[in-house]
């Protein structure tokens, strides 16, 4: 079954292309018609057409800082698998450490080979390099990490897929926890000026790839357990987030910039409701509210006054997992899940996205409260997921996310592509049941989930305006 599916892949893709060619004129010339911009709750291309992202995450911020899986399959085969699902968007995670090393190495990126030796040791590093070279002969001992990312960007462009650059972490390790030293600005490994430098480097690098139209600021901000004295709150969040977005925008004004929220990117409510940053409610209980907050002058996240906001480049992004704060208490209650999504940030899409199960409560702690936003912005669901097995389609939270994104044409990216990691949490060849692929990347881990869940979902999302 699995093998048959993949063997059929090129023919199915070719047939689909022919079918499309008959229906609509092919505008391959300037695909993807960038730069993109925002208009109300929509992302639009340069032809003023609304674009909808549907995709997955491709991890590349582990210890070796090389996208996972290329020791098992060719880049073209991996991208073809994603194309088969129907994805048009891939969120690529990278670590700031990669750029720090480039600066330490006088401006030159280090090779895949030395990155592997460093991360995996001599024996496994050499073995993995040989496997990469066998499956991807264009990657040799002298190829650098960013050259590999360029190869992937080019292959994705060839197959009609956008590359989104996601700064996942500073130090390259499995993400994310309160005690990993990468949780919050100024955390042990979260150097703010290196972070800005890394953003500038990647924003410049993106200029060479027309299928990169967007970039994130930081994955899953959260309170640090390592440095307890950092002020973890809405005020320092907005101060750091707005400065970083201005920095990227000044470097590459074409890019959309995705803004993530607090508590592992669950909550953006203080921004969307334009609440006083010193006193605004928050999904969890670990916020360091400023002392005497209610007696201080009010402060607001005035996104419409920023350069990137005025240029219509701001997009919001939110995550939702069964282990996330709030959702963990409402796993079987779709009304509460959708009300939470709305309350914590998707209200930026406007009243039209207000779930049916909402009450008129204005109490932020009420699971069914759906306070309205005071601004309108596109908002994406850039991480969600669960075990890739036959039960995926039956998980209430997954069904609920599918329903909400389909109804409101919300762009999404599933976590994740990787059925295994070359190293993760100290374990070599670390397999992930949540991955779309098998551990050896030769097939889908759950073909029924791909065929009976993801593909119909993507069809239901409607026209994405990203077809080649
Ligand atoms: C897109 O919209 C802008 C503003 O309304 C307009 O100036 C421009 O000509 C439009 N572009 C296309 C390709 O329709
Ligand atoms: C090499 O990887 C294997 C698993 O593939 C692991 O068992 C072994 O400990 C690793 N060797 C070293 C030296 O880390
Ligand atoms: C790549 O490096 C390894 C380890 O140093 C070496 O054994 C191998 O011959 C090199 N390959 C080429 C093509 O130079
Ligand atoms: C951040 O890193 C830079 C070097 O890039 C260093 O000069 C600076 O002191 C570091 N900042 C902190 C707070 O450690
Ligand atoms: C863009 O590509 C050109 C040609 O390959 C290369 O010389 C240049 O360094 C690249 N620019 C960036 C920012 O990577
Ligand atoms: C960034 O965050 C740190 C840690 O909370 C804080 O000290 C600093 O003031 C913030 N920067 C801005 C510009 O708000
Ligand atoms: C919520 O408010 C609207 C408008 O004020 C009203 O029509 C509706 O009946 C209220 N719903 C509930 C459940 O109270
Ligand atoms: C808000 O709702 C929570 C949870 O339902 C409740 O404990 C709290 O008392 C309510 N607050 C107000 C002001 O009604
Ligand atoms: C999923 O739910 C349907 C309908 O309740 C049921 O028929 C099916 O057996 C379930 N599948 C799995 C794998 O749990
Ligand atoms: C990962 O899966 C592969 C293939 O199924 C297996 O050979 C390997 O031992 C697994 N790795 C671990 C750490 O269990």
TrEMBL record:
GO MF annotation: an example: hydrolase activity
Keywords: Hydrolase, Signal
Signal peptide: 1-23
Superkingdom assignment: Eukaryota
Keyword check for Hydrolase: yes
Cross-referenced InterPro entries: GH
Signal is among the record's keywords: yes
PANTHER family: CELLULASE FAMILY PROTEIN (AFU_ORTHOLOGUE AFUA_5G14560)
Protein name: Glycoside hydrolase
Organism expressing this protein natively: Kalmanozyma brasiliensis (strain GHG001)
